[in-house]
Amino acid sequence: MWEDLNEDGHPVSIWFDWPQQESEAAELVTWQHTIVPGLLQTPAYAHAFLSSDEAVEARMARQIILTRTDAPPTALTALLSDGVLTHLVGSPEVMREQIEHLVSLSESPTSPFATWRPLTPRQGPSPSTSP
Description:
The chain has helices at 2-5, 18-24, 43-47, 53-62, 82-86, 92-107; strands spanning 27-32, 75-81, 114-119. The protein is of the alpha/beta class. The chain has a domain at 21-107. The longest helix is centred in the C-terminal third of the chain and has 16 residues, at 92-107.
């Protein structure tokens, strides 16, 4: 995908259709140190950031790429810093639901495409600071 987006030798435009790019990707890898990635968010967690029901519904609709059967599902690997799991978003109930959702995704045989791994400061520098 990176080569396709940069085929003219210019940096990627920030205005390209990200949901379209996600739906065409065979694999996505994300490193998050502040929030749970949209593809793994619960509706309640997403509501903490998005102001309309329509925006939350659009975010939830994007998640179908992880379990679709009409095309190969997109493999997703999410590396999450421990801050993602400990920083309160919404309420304690929202966070509990979100963490339970992450655990259920990682344990579900019907959704093996969403894997996540929490990273702690003891595990060294982040991918963004590594050579």
